[in-house]
Design brief:
This protein is α/β, with parallel strands linked by helices and about 325 residues long. About 25% of the residues lie in helices and about 25% in strands. The chain is elongated, with a radius of gyration of 21 Å.
């Protein structure tokens, strides 16, 4: 029987209603009382790592989670992390970079309703996650939620209240779970030994363009961060009308070694800065990076991982465009 480590970090799944709203209160060992059927296919031990509303999750906490899995990796056949839904996609993405090529599954799950309610998605999500983590053919980092198995770098929270909270963006689900059966589509079982990373560079910022936004805000972002991801419009571009100073600001900080990455605010189909002059000209001039079909969550956390051990521009580019856990498909143009 497979041995699974259930790691509790907080979130709605372990919350109870207090005078100021829902807050994490249920402990890791209590969760197993709600899914007794799991004893039929796996042996579960628990670890209460933290108890946060995932709004409070930060890169330091991601290092703690990755470190806990690394320290217990040889003791267990798989790992299930109970996590709040609000930042789960970021955590799944960053763990994809901090725990690479893992033959053992690292599964994140949670719920939209607390597990102790009569009507909740929590018990199904937790049972499905333990089932998936205990299956011989599972590997790598993924989210199991509402019967879907999503690659850790491809998940995005799309709904705030509905049970089908997460979607797989620009890439199919790896599998679905129905009535206790795992139906796999396109997942390859990872082999060999995992590669662990311990540190992140949290100095990565996201600057969202809106029409008429002052250019000086980007200048301020570059003062604060080692890398800036610009969420642009449509297929991607930098405003170049006479009242903008973006090009001047980008050139100044590029000379000082800062990294600029362009992505799109549009959820599906990705960026393509070769389409319009406002994108193609600035990309050719500054040689900036482009996310293509990557999610914002993957782009941000991949930069945190890369910058933790190199700021060399060529090496950053090479690593950013090296696929990890299905995170990027488009050829670099």
């Amino acid at each position: 029987m497979k041995k699974i480590l259930l790691i509790a970090t907080g979130g709605t799944i372990v919350s109870r209603l207090g005078k100021n709203g829902l807050a994490p209160q249920i402990k890791a060992d209590e969760l197993l009382n709600y899914v007794p059927q799991c004893r039929e296919f796996c042996e579960v031990q628990t670890l209460q790592l933290m108890n946060l509303d995932s709004t409070n999750m930060c890169p330091r906490d991601w290092e703690v989670i990755a470190g806990a899995i690394r320290s217990h990796y040889e003791e267990y056949d798989g790992f299930v992390i109970c996590h709040g839904t609000d930042t789960m996609a970021f955590t799944a993405a960053v763990l994809s970079y901090m725990i690479q090529n893992s033959p053992k599954p690292v599964v994140l799950t949670g719920s939209q309703k607390p597990i102790d309610l009569e009507i909740t998605d929590a018990r199904t999500n937790l049972a499905d996650s333990l089932l998936y983590a205990a299956d011989e053919d599972s590997s790598g980092v993924s989210i199991v939620f509402d019967g879907k198995v999503i690659a850790g770098t491809r998940a995005k929270k799309m709904r705030t209240k509905s049970y089908n909270a997460f979607s797989s963006i620009n890439y199919p689900c790896l599998a679905v779970i129905r009535d206790g059966n795992i139906l796999r589509y396109n997942q390859t079982k990872l082999q060999g030994k995992p590669i662990f990373y311990d540190k992140l560079d949290s100095r990565v910022g996201v600057f969202k363009l809106i029409p008429g936004v002052p250019s000086d805000i980007l200048d301020y972002y570059f003062r604060l961060f080692d890398a800036v991801v610009i969420e642009s419009f449509g297929t991607g571009g930098i405003p170049d009308a006479p009242y903008y100073r973006f090009a001047e600001i980008i050139e100044k900080w590029r000379r000082l070694g800062k990294i600029l990455v362009m992505c799109t605010q549009v959820t599906n189909e990705g960026s393509d800065m070769s389409v319009y002059e406002v994108g193609k000209s600035v990309k050719n001039k500054f040689g900036l990076l482009e996310t293509y079909d990557m999610t914002l969550e993957a782009a941000v956390t991949k930069l945190m991982w890369i910058l933790s051990f190199t700021h060399d521009r060529d090496e950053v580019r090479r690593l950013f465009y090296t696929p990890v856990n299905y995170d990027i498909l488009y050829p670099v143009r």
